[in-house]
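Supplementary Methods. Inverse-folding protocol.

Structures were first reduced to a discrete structure-token string of length 629. This string, shown here, constituted the complete conditioning input.
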């Protein structure tokens, strides 16, 4: 009966339109052959209906829930039959001419437990800060959570190893959250000391975090300084109720319960026993953190979804644009040249500890930010020094960590001190030359930054200012002849001058470091450049068959030579210099490899040869040589 009804409606579509009242428990979108109908929402409710659409010769029905508006307009095309309003159409209108605007309420996405933290964007993840008095195992727990040994760990009861805030993504089972490693808190120190500055910086960062983990050393019991840290937390972060963790509990038995009862005096609830070194108790820490982080994520995601300009799928990490690879930038140099000050100037915030003390930075601090839409990972390293037998403990670990950061980076920013240049009357010392040459050997892009130019202001230093700007680029090119066109930037990190110029030079060097040249363009360039080279005679000219680029980052080329010809060092230097001048590849190392193309006998090719008449000559082999028969 339904089929006959459909045929009747199709035959009389110019005279009659029918609308059947129906109700649905859910709402969805109506799709035509070319567009989606009714993308908007409406709160005015009417009875539902069934519409008929004709695609070609077929007739289909669509059922819609009853959220409609009185003025309905749908522009149908390609034979789409519209829906009748209240079941009646005017007799002089066809279904193809009727336009009905159907407005369907968009379903609301509501996040509930459990939350899959692995699919959440890193920018939305909660932040957990690890705090405590010095030498209780904060950095060890940080390394355990991020599953890498990044933070320096060394037993120094009378000193701080960690001085800056380190940030990473914690992976505890299926939990994901931002974790911060902080310096040890001492509340009684004066504000001008290093410990006072680190405590103040910790308080500033703690105000922007959501959760905290307070660590105590179970071997030492509840220390009086732990109680002071608890009071400090209530004062500077009253909105945070920290999770108390008893570290170094792998070797304690019955005394563990005693220390746990003492830890209740902090007033933050039942403590959790763990061992950051061995991984003991990570399951218990997971069970404590899971409900707290889930409640936070449910509230955060639902708040974002309630906004009109945020869609439900925007919160997932799968939507992240990966078209631009992140840039790894490492700031290196000797101690006390202004590396940390430069990092704070680039970020425009007090992110790392700065001061007049030499060797203040110990950990290689890695920070992510965006510049012109490109993600940049900025690494502030400790002062590069040659490792000696006297360098032990944290100093030795800092040197090794700085070398690892240099090898991981794409671009190296070598910072020089303008005051030291004036005193030594030379641009680069031996250690700075070692840094630059190591960067070249590793194939990294290089940018030289001359800091503290604000010290050369005034009429007395005007001549010195001009001489430094003229002499430094020439001397840098002299001591590092492997790379030509090294960019040199003169800045004042303390005043923030030259910050944009530094990043522009870094981005330009990175683009040249990633550049690729087509084989056709290279071979056209080769024919021109070979005519400019002055060989003694034509016989000594290398027979380069063709020239091609095999990889970028850094640009690497292969010269295919005929026979046993070998390019001399002078020829490679000439080709390298010509590539940098003609294709603007300054500041990046260029590698040229050689490959030999074996010569073949005249008139033959491969295993079989052809005579000038075109006859194929087979080849047979003997024990000594290949002969033709």
């Amino acid at each position: 009966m339904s089929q006959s009804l459909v045929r009747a409606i199709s035959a009389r579509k110019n005279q009659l339109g029918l609308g059947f009242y129906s109700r649905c428990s859910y709402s969805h979108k109506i799709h035509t052959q070319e567009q989606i109908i009714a993308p908007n929402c409406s709160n005015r409710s009417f009875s539902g209906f069934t519409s008929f659409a004709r695609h070609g010769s077929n007739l289909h029905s669509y059922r819609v829930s009853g959220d409609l508006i009185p003025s309905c307009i749908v522009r149908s095309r390609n034979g789409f039959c519209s829906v009748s309003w209240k079941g009646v159409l005017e007799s002089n209108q066809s279904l193809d001419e009727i336009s009905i605007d159907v407005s369907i309420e968009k379903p609301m996405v509501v996040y509930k437990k459990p939350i899959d933290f692995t699919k959440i964007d890193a920018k939305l993840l909660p932040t957990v800060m690890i705090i405590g008095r010095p030498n209780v195992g904060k950095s060890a727990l940080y390394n355990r959570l991020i599953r890498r040994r990044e933070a320096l760990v060394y037993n120094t009861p009378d000193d701080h190893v960690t001085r800056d805030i380190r940030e990473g993504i914690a992976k505890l089972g299926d939990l994901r959250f931002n974790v911060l490693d902080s310096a040890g808190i001492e509340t009684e120190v004066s504000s001008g000391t290093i410990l006072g500055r680190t405590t103040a910086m910790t308080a500033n960062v703690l105000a922007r975090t959501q959760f905290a983990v307070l660590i105590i050393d179970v071997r030492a019991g509840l220390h009086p300084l732990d109680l002071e840290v608890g009071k400090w937390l209530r004062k500077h972060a009253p909105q945070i109720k920290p999770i108390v963790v008893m570290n170094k509990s792998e070797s304690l038995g019955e005394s563990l319960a005693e220390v746990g009862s003492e830890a209740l005096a902090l007033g933050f609830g039942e403590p959790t026993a763990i061992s950051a070194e061995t991984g003991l108790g990570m399951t218990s820490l997971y069970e404590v953190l899971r409900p707290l982080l889930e409640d936070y994520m449910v509230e955060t995601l639902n708040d974002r979804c309630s906004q009109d300009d945020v869609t439900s799928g925007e919160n997932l990490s799968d939507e992240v644009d990966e078209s631009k690879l992140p840039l790894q930038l490492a700031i290196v140099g000797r101690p006390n040249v202004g590396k940390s000050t430069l990092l704070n100037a680039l970020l425009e915030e007090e992110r790392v500890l700065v001061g007049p003390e030499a060797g203040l930075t110990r950990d290689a601090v890695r920070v992510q930010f965006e510049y012109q839409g490109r993600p940049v990972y900025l690494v502030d390293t400790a002062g590069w020094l040659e490792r000696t037998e006297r360098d032990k403990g944290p100093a030795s670990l800092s040197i090794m960590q700085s070398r690892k950061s240099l090898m991981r980076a794409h671009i190296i920013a070598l910072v020089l001190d303008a005051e030291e240049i004036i005193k030594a009357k030379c641009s680069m010392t031996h250690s700075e030359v070692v840094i630059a040459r190591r960067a070249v050997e590793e194939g990294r892009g290089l940018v030289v930054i001359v800091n503290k130019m604000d010290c050369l202001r005034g009429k007395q230093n005007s001549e010195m200012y001009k001489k430094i700007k003229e002499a430094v680029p020439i001397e840098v090119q002299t001591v590092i002849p492997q790379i030509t066109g090294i960019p040199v930037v003169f800045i004042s990190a303390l005043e923030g001058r030259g910050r944009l110029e530094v990043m522009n030079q870094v981005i330009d060097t990175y683009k040249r470091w990633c550049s690729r040249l087509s084989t056709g363009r290279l071979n056209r360039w080769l024919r021109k450049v070979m005519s400019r080279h002055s060989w003694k005679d034509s016989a000594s000219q290398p027979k380069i068959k063709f020239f091609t680029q095999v990889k970028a980052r850094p640009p690497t080329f292969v010269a295919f030579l005929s026979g046993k010809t070998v390019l001399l060092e002078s020829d490679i230097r000439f080709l390298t210099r010509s590539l940098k001048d003609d294709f603007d590849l300054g500041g990046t190392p260029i590698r040229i490899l050689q490959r030999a193309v074996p010569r073949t006998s005249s008139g033959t090719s491969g295993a079989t040869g052809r005579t000038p008449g075109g006859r194929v000559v087979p080849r047979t082999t003997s024990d000594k040589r290949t002969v033709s028969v």
